[in-house]
């Protein structure tokens, strides 16, 4: 810490109530210049409420904040931005059809003589991009940029506002290992410039790399604060869940020798993966690792019939069932829990019961009739079976990420599939819910289902897989056994 | 879990049972409207007038069922007014100019209407033309074809029994056309509420990608929905021919907008995935009762248009407000 060690922002006794329910119970928090404070906690712990209060989206019910020594009470996001708070949301809020420069300045275009001054806009944006070491022309459309670059553009946007404090909400949720490292390089640079950073993430490994301090929240209160990020992961997790964790990953059973799913020379019509060969055995969990853009999602989507196949075949128990549509794949018993549960997995403003019923309408129907009671009954059974915390008639968007994911899983497992493909099964899901999803995965394998798990979270792939296939740039770089797989061997193949 | 299931069943409100979700507001509106008209006019609350209202909404009611399906899957069908006219002209031409029995004319009309819907649907699914544009194109094409058949002339002189289907009240109250509308209502409601195909439409409207990944044949269902919308527009054309005892290529002009208005007033969301037939029936009744009531009150047709516009805006704004 430098001589100027007074906090940029202090929160004192911040409380927030919605009606009679208090969701934040007196939070104290200091952010000093040039430090990264990791804010941890399960979903619903109050992290996002804290960041909303700081960024002026919601007012606190009581308590006070000071910004560089002066009282700070933003009435709206505009006030917070003007003060120097940059908020980078988990869901990227860029407009794909506009250029990078336009996105950086949206809503506050520099003007000259009443007209938008495109030159200033371009120059300023390009300065912001350079500051982040991003070599992109500011006139390029945002559409088609990698998620990592989009993330960095959001940060550039905050920087052109001269933000003194950045709030990053799950910035690496969609990033692979290499991109994450690039983001971290930029964060270190910002630290050196004296920017204070609040870093919200579920990935504890990252926290160790980037954070200076760790603040753990649970049920709307600050439960523990660590003055260094060099704390054992287990200690942090136990503080988050408020109990000691036996284990994160379940014990895996022994798969049988009999192959269920065989993929031969599979090549995607969109060219995102080529000539992939592997077999998954009965009761086996087959992990697929690789960097973002390696073609993992496209590969498993093709196996599940969601994306077109150019050549090659998919065999199920010896029969060629190369699917042409999701319908084909589902009929043969291959189901996909897609990457983006909000866009591909759930109809968010429909009820849990309806969501579970959609792929199973024929099964739900009694004598050809789908009654509301039958839908509720069918769903109720599966809600119970997979431990979803919610009622059948609740809308899917009222659930936490973990419970939403359980609903997506539940809707498929109701069909007793033979192959289950899970793409990023725990993205953006808190630690507690995560381990119950791992239990479901292990349970499936124990029942003799062939399971494929795609994940960017290395610890996760290593923890739940019998074997791991690593992909790099659309090709399979290698398949590792449980015994030989570790973070080094996987990363070597992924970057090969 | 059995503990939580029991109160859940008990919590099923009346609204849930009739899939009224989103249509309770319109139902109250309809009720208030009826009470107001009963008090302010002598003629409104008489059996004879109420039966008139039913007769007057037959064309709109039949088309609105198809439109409900279309809007439910997140689409729009601007062609229904023109398809109605085309179907009328095909029927009239087949029966009165070519001299086939009128039943053959009706069949031909329905086939042509189905074909129009199929073309719209295929343009949407196969060529990815937005529904607004493909049905806008079909609106123009169907209207043009309707005019071409007789070069813009009307056809008259159907057998007496044909138009009597719209006028003789069997059992003192039910004309064949009203009965037909009621049958369409019941079938439309039943399909949507109790069959897996009907439930799938909600999934498609909620998110076509989720529906596709759930194994629903989204393209086929979409084409099917536009075919149904076309056929019902054709059927509405035949009912209109019975009521007018003539067919003319200008018939059904701007009916698509009335139909969309009825569906939207009934609480079906233009963004898809939410709504239902009961709501649409209420929406159709609101428009029907409003027209009838304004006529009884001696309001000019110009003012009526203003009032109906205001009602549409209020209904949708109230619904959006309630959701917040």
UniProtKB/TrEMBL annotation, chain A:
SUPFAM superfamilies: P-loop containing nucleoside triphosphate hydrolases (SSF52540)
Protein topology in the membrane: Peripheral membrane protein
Domain ABC transporter: 9-244, 255-496
Main subcellular location of this protein, as a coarse class: membrane
The keyword Cell wall biogenesis/degradation belongs to this UniProt entry's keyword annotation: no
Compartments in which it is found: Cell membrane
One Gene Ontology CC term in the entry: plasma membrane
PROSITE patterns: ABC_TRANSPORTER_1, ABC_TRANSPORTER_2
Assigned keywords, A-Z: ATP-binding, Cell membrane, Membrane, Nucleotide-binding, Repeat, Sugar transport, Translocase, Transport
Single Gene Ontology MF annotation: ATP binding
Gene3D superfamilies reported in the protein's UniProt record: P-loop containing nucleotide triphosphate hydrolases
PANTHER family in the cross-refs: CARBOHYDRATE TRANSPORT ATP-BINDING PROTEIN MG119-RELATED, D-ALLOSE IMPORT ATP-BINDING PROTEIN ALSA-RELATED
Protein name (database record): Ribose transport system ATP-binding protein
Automatic annotation (TrEMBL), chain B:
Record key words, sorted: Cell inner membrane, Cell membrane, Membrane, Transmembrane, Transmembrane helix, Transport
Record-annotated membrane-spanning stretches: 20-39, 59-86, 98-119, 125-146, 167-192, 218-240, 260-290, 302-321
Cell compartments where the protein resides: Cell membrane
GO MF terms, alphabetically ordered: transmembrane transporter activity
Highest taxon above the source species: Bacteria
Xref: Pfam families: BPD_transp_2
Transcription listed as a keyword: no
GO CC annotations on file: plasma membrane
Signal sequence segment: none
Membrane-related topology note: Multi-pass membrane protein
Keyword Cell membrane assigned: yes
PANTHER family per UniProt: ABC TRANSPORTER PERMEASE PROTEIN YPHD-RELATED (PTHR32196:SF21), ABC TRANSPORTER PERMEASE PROTEIN YPHD-RELATED-RELATED (PTHR32196)
Entry protein name: Ribose transport system permease protein
Organism encoding this protein: Donghicola tyrosinivorans
């Amino acid at each position: 810490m430098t001589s100027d060690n007074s906090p940029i922002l202090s929160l004192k006794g911040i409380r927030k109530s919605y009606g009679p329910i208090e969701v934040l119970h007196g939070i104290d928090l200091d952010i000093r210049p040039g430090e990264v404070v990791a804010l941890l906690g399960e979903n619903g712990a109050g992290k996002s409420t804290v960041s909303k209060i700081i960024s002026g989206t919601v007012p606190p019910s009581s308590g006070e904040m000071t910004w560089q020594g002066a009282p700070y009470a933003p009435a709206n996001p505009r006030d917070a931005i003007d003060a120097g708070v940059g908020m980078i949301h988990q869901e990227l809020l860029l407009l794909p059809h506009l250029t990078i420069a336009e996105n950086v300045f949206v809503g506050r275009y520099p003007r000259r003589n009443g007209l938008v001054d495109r030159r200033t806009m371009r120059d300023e944006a390009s300065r912001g991009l350079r500051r982040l070491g991003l070599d992109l022309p500011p006139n390029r459309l945002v559409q088609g940029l990698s998620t990592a670059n989009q993330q960095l553009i959001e940060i550039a946007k905050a920087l052109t506002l001269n933000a003194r404090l950045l709030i990053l909400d799950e910035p690496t949720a969609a990033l692979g290992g290499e991109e994450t490292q690039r983001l971290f390089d930029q964060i270190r640079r910002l630290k050196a410039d004296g920017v204070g950073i609040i870093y919200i993430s579920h990935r504890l490994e990252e926290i160790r790399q980037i954070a200076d301090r760790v603040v753990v929240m649970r049920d709307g209160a600050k439960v523990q604060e660590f003055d260094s990020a060099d704390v054992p992961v287990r200690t942090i997790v136990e503080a988050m869940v408020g109990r000691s964790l036996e284990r994160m990953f379940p014990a895996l059973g022994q798969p049988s020798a009999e192959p269920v799913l065989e993929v031969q020379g599979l090549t995607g019509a969109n060219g995102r993966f080529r000539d992939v060969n592997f077999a998954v055995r009965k009761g086996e969990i087959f992990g697929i690792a690789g960097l973002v853009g390696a073609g993992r999602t496209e590969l498993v989507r093709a196996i599940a019939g969601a994306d077109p196949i150019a050549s090659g075949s998919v065999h199920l128990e010896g029969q060629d069932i190369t699917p042409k549509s999701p319908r084909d794949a589902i009929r043969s018993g291959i189901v996909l829990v897609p990457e983006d549960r909000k866009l591909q997995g759930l109809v968010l403003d429909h009820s849990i019961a309806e969501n579970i019923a959609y792929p199973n309408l024929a099964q739900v129907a009694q004598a050809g009739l789908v009654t509301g009671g039958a839908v509720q009954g069918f769903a109720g059974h599966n809600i119970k079976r997979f431990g979803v915390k919610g009622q059948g008639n609740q809308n899917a968007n009222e659930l936490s990420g973990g419970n939403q994911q359980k609903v997506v899983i539940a809707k498929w497992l109701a069909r007793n599939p033979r192959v289950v493909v899970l793409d990023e099964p725990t993205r953006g899901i808190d630690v507690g819910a995560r381990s119950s999803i791992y239990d479901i995965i292990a349970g499936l394998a124990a029942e003799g289902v062939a399971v494929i798990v795609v994940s960017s979270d290395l610890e996760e792939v290593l923890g739940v897989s019998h074997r791991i296939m690593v992909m790099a740039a659309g090709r399979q770089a290698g398949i590792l056994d449980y015994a030989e797989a570790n973070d080094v061997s996987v990363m070597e193949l992924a970057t090969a | 879990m059995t503990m939580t299931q029991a109160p859940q069943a008990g919590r099923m409100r009346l609204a849930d049972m009739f899939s009224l979700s989103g249509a309770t507001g319109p139902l109250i509106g309809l009720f208030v409207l009826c009470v107001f008209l009963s008090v302010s006019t002598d003629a409104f609350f008489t059996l004879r007038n109420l039966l008139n209202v039913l007769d007057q909404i037959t064309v709109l009611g039949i088309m609105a069922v198809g439109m409900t399906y279309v809007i439910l899957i997140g689409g729009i069908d601007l062609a229904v007014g023109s398809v109605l006219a085309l179907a009328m002209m095909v029927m009239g031409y087949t029966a009165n100019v070519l001299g086939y029995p009128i039943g053959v004319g009706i069949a031909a009309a329905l086939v042509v209407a189905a074909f129009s819907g199929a073309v719209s649907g295929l343009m949407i699914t196969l060529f990815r033309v937005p529904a607004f544009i493909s049905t806008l194109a079909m609106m123009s094409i169907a209207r043009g074809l309707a005019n071409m058949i007789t070069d813009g002339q009307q056809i008259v002189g159907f057998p007496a029994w044909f138009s009597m289907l719209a006028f003789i009240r069997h059992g003192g109250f039910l004309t064949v056309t009203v009965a037909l509308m009621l049958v369409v209502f019941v079938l439309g409601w039943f399909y949507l509420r109790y069959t897996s195909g009907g439930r799938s439409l909600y999934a498609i409207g909620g998110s076509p990608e989720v529906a596709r990944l759930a194994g629903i044949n989204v393209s086929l269902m979409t084409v099917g929905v536009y075919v149904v919308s076309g056929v019902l527009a054709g059927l509405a054309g035949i009912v209109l021919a019975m009521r007018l005892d003539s067919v003319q290529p200008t018939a059904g002009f701007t009916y698509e907008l009335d139909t969309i208005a009825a569906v939207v007033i009934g609480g079906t969301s233009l963004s898809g995935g939410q709504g239902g037939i009961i709501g649409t029936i209420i929406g159709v009744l609101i428009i029907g009762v409003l027209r009838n009531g304004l006529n009884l009150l001696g309001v000019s047709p110009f003012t009526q248009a203003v009032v109906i516009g205001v009602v549409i805006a209020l209904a949708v704004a109230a619904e959006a407000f309630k959701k917040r």
